[in-house]
TrEMBL record:
Organism placement in taxonomy: Bacteria, Pseudomonadati, Bacteroidota, Flavobacteriia, Flavobacteriales
Protein name, UniProt field: Type II toxin-antitoxin system RelE/ParE family toxin
InterPro entries linked to this entry: RelE/ParE_toxin, RelE/ParE_toxin_dom_sf
Keywords: Toxin-antitoxin system
Species of the source: Chryseobacterium nematophagum
Cross-referenced Pfam families: ParE_toxin
Amino acid sequence: MFEIEWTEKAEHLYLEALEFWINHNKSATYSKKILKQVSEKENYIANNPYAGQEVFDIPGVRYVVVLKKFLIFYRINNKTIQILSFWDGHKNPQDLEL
């Protein structure tokens, strides 16, 4: 099993998304759903690191989809999965920096 490590940037984007949905919906229900799914995806890629889809133009970077709306981009380093970004799929992809 691989260890999961979030970059500061990825963690910031993740927390920002959770906060946005709490404020937008005036409820933590959807954010709790995101938390649960992210935890499940972390466990999944920790056990199956090559299961994520490869990013075609960035060698070594993969992603998994969360709730059909968010993307977790990651890189495999030895026995560590480094989470590079937590991305809202509705944002402009040209703003994505990995």
